[in-house]
Design goal:
The structure holds two protein chains of two kinds.
Chain A (H helix, E strand, L loop, with lengths): L1 E6 L2 E9 L4 H17 L1 H15 L8 H21 L4 H26 L6 H6 L4 H30 L10 H25 L3 H15 L20 H13 L6 H25 L3 H4 L1
Antiparallel strand pairs in A: 1-2
Chain B lengths: L3 E12 L8 H9 L1 H8 L3 E13 L3 E5 L6 H8 L7 E7 L2 E4 L12 H11 L4 H15 L14 H14 L4 E5 L7 H17 L2 E5 L3 H7 L2 E6 L2 E7 H11 L1
Helix pairs in contact in B: 1-2, 4-5, 5-6, 6-7
Classes of the chains: A mainly alpha, B alpha/beta.
Chain lengths: 285, 248
């Protein structure tokens, strides 16, 4: 939509729009949107950081509340569930801490994504900003939160002195996968929820159910014969490809296949929707 | 590159969903039962702007007049790139500053300084330029210590001054302005007027929307009269305004 021509006195913009609804022109506009968002990364960073600062403004600990509440949660659940599941706390607590922190990222990301555009209504109506920037802001904000929570995982590992070892390198491709998925979720749910207002409650209940069945608080081996079912649960497989390397294990091969396939479908769906709906979001919010 | 604006046959429809076709349930029900499916396809839309064409070159000062709901603000938003037209084509060359409402997307929970930083980063200013921007705006708005307090605690006067100061601090080639900028207490207006005149003079193209004929006569050389989304008259300011006032 816009082409930036840099001149001596700053940035000049050309805003060109033609309402021929061909797919090619829509795709061009969507690509331009993403390119423009990338060039505004500093704004995105500030928006995400201010979101967190704002939430904890006036509180003494600030964002460290996140760390503290996650720590308490891990301690309480670790004590109870290690005896329910008959696993020594020494083995269970690191697993639980990592699972909860990652799941927390995932679930807050999904709920935030539902309001990606509807909560930014004021901004969308008064200044023109690339729509992918709103999605990137949500993702970045949750990465900041994750950075606060991961302290708990590190603390647990430190206390018990157990480290994942060289297998942890496998987490790197998984992180890339997670970031791509996170952006896709923010765009997909953001646009869908702007148009259909009853999706947020659906998303919340799906998440609750997924938390129970996706081997977040229990180890997948406990399922015994039924383990093969997990490969069909994208929540589990996406979680597994990142969690296992960080626990010092190699993820199951079926997790990889399933996570990659699911991510491909998710990203494709998000992109298709973005190309189609981008120009309409201003009318929906 | 000289600034220019060209619109041809631009139409903008506003879909009305308001709890009607908006819910997924209604959509699902509609797709199952044939009768409501036909209903869902005939979406209720407000034709806010219909078949508007005009072009502006560097030096033009355009006023948009018309009653409330004539499509003035919607057209401004389309020029700013916020609403994409459903028909026609639109081309705006030059840096744009759109002053559409007093809060300009300001977040009331953030401090004045943080809002200024966001604005600066939006305009791709570097750190030093943002500091200058903050100083400039704070001096104009007489915020002093309030600059680092949340905007929510500002008096309404301070809020208007901050919004105005921020809006007028970034000098664009194409200035799109809704009439709010010209409303305010008279004491403030004297001070604001010099700043605003500076901004308007600096801009190559001005598009001003207002339903106050005096304001438009002061600032504009050309006037477009919008009526129910259509161009009813387009020409020199005095002629169109005279016609507009007769009809009103």
């Amino acid at each position: 939509m816009t082409k930036a021509h840099v001149t001596d006195d700053g940035v000049q913009l050309v805003l060109a729009f033609n309402a021929d609804q061909s797919h090619a022109s829509r795709r061009r506009l969507a690509v331009a949107d993403v390119v423009e968002a990338a060039s505004l990364w500093r704004l995105c960073w500030t928006l995400a950081w201010l979101d967190i600062r704002l939430r904890y403004r006036g509180s003494m600990l600030g964002p460290l509340w996140l760390t503290l509440s996650t720590g308490l949660m891990v301690a309480a659940m670790g004590a109870i569930y290690s005896s329910i599941l008959h696993i020594p706390a020494r083995d269970y607590v690191p697993y639980l801490a990592l699972s909860l922190v990652l799941w927390n990222f995932l679930s807050v990301l999904v709920t935030d994504s539902c309001h990606c555009y509807t909560l930014a209504e004021g901004m969308i109506r008064t200044v023109r900003m690339p729509y992918s920037l709103y999605a990137a802001r949500i993702v970045l904000r949750n990465v900041f939160v994750l950075a606060h929570n991961i302290v708990v995982v590190i603390a647990v590992d430190l206390v018990l002195w157990r480290w994942p070892g060289p297998v942890a390198v496998l987490a790197l491709p998984a992180i890339v996968l997670w970031l791509a998925d996170a952006l896709a979720v923010a765009i997909l749910l953001g646009a869908l929820c702007a148009r259909f207002r009853d999706i947020p409650p659906i998303a919340t209940s799906v998440l609750q159910m997924a938390f129970m069945v996706s081997a977040v608080i229990f180890r997948p081996e406990l399922l015994g014969e039924q383990q093969w079912l997990l490969a069909f649960n994208p929540f589990f497989t996406v979680l597994d490809v990142l969690r296992a390397p960080l626990m010092g294990e190699v993820p199951r091969w079926d997790s990889y296949v399933s996570a990659v396939c699911f991510s491909a479908v998710l990203c494709l769906a998000a992109w298709t929707l973005f190309v189609r709906a981008r120009g309409r979001i201003a009318f929906w919010v | 590159m000289a600034a220019s604006i060209a619109l041809s046959g631009v139409s903008i429809d506003f879909p009305l969903y308001h709890g009607n076709a908006r819910s997924l349930k209604k959509r699902l029900v509609a797709s199952v039962s044939g009768r409501m499916g036909a209903d869902a396809k005939h979406r209720v839309v407000v034709k806010a702007v219909r078949d508007v064409s005009f072009s502006l070159a560097s030096g033009d000062r355009l006023g948009l007049v018309g009653r409330n709901g004539a499509g003035k603000t919607t057209l401004l938003r389309a020029l700013a790139g916020i609403y994409e037209p459903v028909a026609g084509s639109l081309r705006v060359v030059g840096s744009i500053n759109a002053l559409l409402d007093p809060n300009l997307g300001m977040n009331l929970d953030l401090t004045g300084r943080e809002n200024i930083i966001l604005r600066g980063q939006y305009n791709r200013l570097d750190r030093a330029a943002i500091r200058r921007l903050a100083d400039d705006v704070a001096a104009f708005a007489e915020l002093d210590d309030f600059l680092d307090l949340p905007v929510r605690v500002y008096s309404s006067g301070m809020l208007v001054r901050l919004g105005f100061g921020l809006a007028t601090a970034i000098k664009p080639q194409v200035l799109l302005m809704d009439e709010w900028l010209l409303a305010g207490d008279s004491n403030f207006l004297d001070k604001a007027r010099a700043r605003l005149e500076d901004l308007v003079r600096g801009a190559e193209i001005l598009v001003l929307s207002s339903h106050l004929p005096e304001v438009v006569r002061d600032w504009c050389t050309r006037v477009i009269w919008l009526d129910q989304g259509r161009v009813r008259a387009d020409g020199p300011a005095d002629a169109v305004l005279a016609e507009y006032l007769r009809a009103d």
